[in-house]
Write a structure and sequence with these properties.
Elements lengths: L6 E5 L2 H4 L12 H6 L17 H15 L3 E5 L2 H4 L10 H16 L3 E7 L5 H4 L9 H16 L5 E6 L1 H9 L14 H23 L1 H4 L2 E7 L2 E4 L5 H13 L1 H9 L6 H13 L25 E4 L3 E6 L9 H5 L1 E4 L16 H14 L5 E5 L4 E2 L7 H19 L5 E7 L13 E2 L3 E3 L8 E3 L1 H14 L5
Parallel strand pairs: 1-2, 1-12, 2-3, 3-4, 4-5, 5-7, 6-8, 7-10, 10-12
Antiparallel strand pairs: 8-9, 11-13, 14-15
């Protein structure tokens, strides 16, 4: 049912689990700053301690082994390694921590997938303009080369940037993620552009200086819902769904996998809206420079984060208001027949993942795909025996099998989100995605496996042995 070398994994991110926000020379990140401001996060919570994985890594490793994972996805804290964001000052305590993590994983026959950037920019670099600054791409490339040089002998799968869409839109247009900027219709496009430039530079650096010896693979993690027209035979709805996909998945996948530039419908829509609004400096959607490393072809695999699906219909713009919504001219809604999982935005649609995988195969020249995030949230009263989430994982993994067997999609791995209950960004600790429950009222941060974790472990054991349904 699954290839013999299929990667069975789970993922985490540094800020969400590590804690130790000031430990051993770590510098502050934008999420440290954001969480310490009033009214930013649910319950004024923060990741100062989180799961305390900085001190309790061995407990995390026990969880990984209990599940029988073949792979573990983690992110490096840029500010823990380089407190001011630059290689002028290397924090050796941070280097030692991550070397131990990687060495322990390999000793247990678990392959690491390492993300260089998962939302937590060093505050020192934000003070210099952050991702809105063109110079951030070069700074990221320097950080990436440091990580390749320092850890590359231990890592075969690299993610440069996680979910640039979320960083750009939620952090710089909606203001609900760090750094909390609300600059609609302008900053998100600039941030996304600089992230693509940064990714491309880092990929070319790896390709030129490290690939021959280290023999790894590099990509960026692109998040996308499956988006389909509200009416399957309505031309306007079909066009609206195509625009919505272009402004989400296509925004980052099209330059990397197809043309080296943004989708034409995105380019024409933003250009026309910019002209209509008389924007200074022309289009708000930047252009790539021929003087910089090409973006096209800078992914050795397609890394997909998928959570839910939406129905799309025309409209949704707010008149002359400058925002991404008015640029794309479409809006998405949840189908009332889809059950909601925990949080309001997350409908349970396992078959949407299969459809999205088929779309990626057909649109992006049949790339190798790793599903780098997929999960199910729990809110309210704690349910260790989480039957619905167990069913979700069973149903989702069967849809992945269908995508491989029936649709011919080259899926190489599946990473559940998340290994642990953790700090869920603006929702704090109110939303739980873990395969293990973490008791945040307990100073020891005790970990308890959910029923869904036990079920996932059984599926891994069965499919690793080549069994099918």
């Amino acid at each position: 049912m699954f290839p013999r070398e299929f990667a069975w994994g789970a993922g985490t991110a540094a800020y969400q689990i590590e804690g130790g926000w000031q430990a051993d020379g770590k510098g502050p990140s934008i999420w440290d700053t954001f969480c310490h401001e009033k009214a930013r996060v649910f319950g004024e919570q923060n990741g100062d301690e989180a799961c305390n994985s900085y001190e309790l890594w061995e407990k995390d490793l026990e969880c990984i082994q209990q599940l029988g994972l073949t792979h573990y996805r983690l992110s490096l804290s840029w500010a823990r390694l380089l407190p001011d964001g630059t290689t002028r000052h290397v924090n050796q305590k941070g280097v030692q921590y991550y070397r131990k993590v990687l060495d322990d994983l390999l000793a247990c026959s678990v392959s690491p997938m390492v993300t260089l950037y998962h939302f937590d920019l060093p505050q020192a670099l934000q003070d210099q303009g952050g991702w809105k600054s063109a110079g951030m791409a070069t700074l990221f490339d320097s950080y990436a080369k440091f990580c390749f040089q320092t850890f590359g002998d231990r890592v075969k799968l690299w993610i440069t940037i996680n979910e640039p869409y979320v960083c750009a839109k939620l952090g710089h247009e909606d203001g609900i993620h760090a750094p909390g900027l609300k600059e609609p219709g302008v900053a998100a496009y600039l941030v996304g552009h600089n992230m693509l430039r940064a990714h491309a530079m880092a990929w070319h650096s790896y390709n030129s200086f490290y690939r021959t010896k280290q023999k790894g693979a590099v990509s960026l993690a692109i998040n996308s819902d499956w988006l389909e027209p509200s009416s399957a035979d309505g031309a306007a709805d079909i066009a609206a769904a195509e625009r919505q996909l272009a402004f989400t998945l296509g925004w980052f996948a099209w330059p990397v996998f197809v043309t080296g530039d943004y989708p034409e419908v995105m380019r024409s829509s933003v250009d026309a809206q910019s002209e209509k609004l008389g924007c200074d400096g022309g289009s708000r959607l930047p252009s790539f420079s021929e003087d910089e490393p090409a973006v096209l072809g800078t992914a050795d695999f397609f890394a997909l984060n998928y959570y839910t699906s939406r129905k799309v219909t025309p409209g949704g713009g707010r008149g002359e208001v400058l925002c991404m919504t008015s640029d794309r001219g479409s809006r998405d809604v949840l189908d009332p027949s889809w059950p909601i999982c925990g949080v309001s935005w997350l409908a349970v649609v396992p078959h949407g993942l299969r459809k999205l995988l088929k779309y990626i195969k057909d649109t992006f020249n049949n790339p190798a795909v790793y599903i780098t995030e997929n999960g199910f949230s729990q809110v309210g009263q704690l349910q260790i025996e989480d039957v619905q989430r167990s069913e979700f994982y069973r149903d989702t993994i069967l849809e992945v099998a269908k995508a491989i067997q029936e649709d011919g999609v080259d899926v190489r791995g599946y990473f559940a989100w998340s290994l642990l209950d953790n700090f869920e960004w603006a929702d704090g600790f109110s939303v739980r995605f873990g395969l293990f429950h973490v008791d945040f009222t307990d100073a020891r941060r005790s970990r308890t496996i959910y029923q869904s974790g036990r079920e996932y472990a059984k599926m891994i054991s069965k499919y690793k042995c080549g069994q099918s349904e």
